[in-house]
Design a protein that fits this description.
single chain; mainly beta; eight-stranded antiparallel β-barrel; about 5% helix
Length: about 270
């Protein structure tokens, strides 16, 4: 919900509708100058880039003297690049075919010490890392209409083409999640490591909106429901409970992943 509010806040200054009378507002033509303006109602190519976040499930499970770990979601941040083509179908409808590559990870993940109460513990740390990367192909269908908007930074008016759309796609991805924990002090000596690597097939369904200027540059906001199917999983684990020896294993983990939601903001250029 907080991400949705964030997107709405970003969208508000861009999509501010004119609330003034005709006497106060300069008359602007909605005709497209084909010699100078980008015409959104023609077929064209496009490039895209975006920033997004999601929460990928992890399967950490360890109960120690100083620290416990349980299955949880790991928040990943990253971006994607895409290239494709749009075909104008007429009557305001547009369909888009696109291929994209993406990468998300635990950017700038820090190694944590034993905690503020244990700053003198030199051999106590916890580090969680995760990454998800892959490629997708998608097809979308949108409907366009013009909107007059006021520049929030300058006292002028312009027209944007607004395109709500729905999108479906498939792709392949790989996810890697690791946890490394150790605590050694006095009578406590425990550690836990888990590495899980997934090969995934993804079927996704998205909804969003494009805001395109007369220069061909556009902004998009999008929410995606990802259905990840694990086609192959490799897991390696090492546990050392307090006072015990290290035990390594390849744990059997559930390959069921609930629907994962991605929130994205980005833009690109149509030509």
């Amino acid at each position: 919900m907080n991400k949705l509010c964030f997107f709405l806040i970003l969208l508000f200054p861009v999509s501010l509708w004119a609330q003034v009378s005709d006497a106060d507002t300069p008359v602007m033509s909605t005709e497209v100058d084909e010699d100078h303006d980008f015409n959104p109602r023609k077929s064209h190519w496009l490039t895209s880039f975006g920033f997004e976040s999601l929460q990928y499930p992890t399967f950490y499970e360890f109960q120690g003297v100083k620290k416990n770990f349980f299955p949880d979601d790991q928040e990943l941040f990253g971006g994607r690049l895409g290239f494709g083509g749009e075909i104008y179908l007429g009557a305001g409808f547009m369909t888009t075919s696109k291929v994209e590559v993406f990468y998300l990870g635990t950017l700038f993940s820090r190694t944590l010490n034993g905690g503020t109460e244990d700053e003198d513990v030199k051999f106590a740390f916890t580090k969680k890392t995760g990454q998800l990367f892959g490629a997708e192909a998608s097809q979308s269908l949108g409907f366009m209409f013009d909107m007059k908007t006021k520049n929030p930074f300058m006292d002028d008016w312009a027209y944007l083409t607004v395109e709500p759309f729905v999108e479906a796609g498939v792709g392949k991805a790989m996810a890697l999640n690791k946890l490394n924990y150790s605590y050694k002090l006095d009578t406590t000596d425990e550690s836990y490591r888990l590495r899980v690597q997934d090969e995934l097939f993804n079927a996704k369904l998205s909804a969003g909106v494009n805001l395109t200027s007369r220069s061909g540059y556009y902004l998009y906001l999008k929410v995606t429901q990802n259905r990840f199917d694990v086609t192959k999983r490799e897991a390696k684990q090492l546990k050392k409970e307090n006072g015990q020896g290290e035990v390594s294993s390849e744990p059997e983990l559930s390959d069921k992943i609930d629907i994962v939601t991605t929130y994205a903001i980005g833009g690109g250029y149509k030509f």
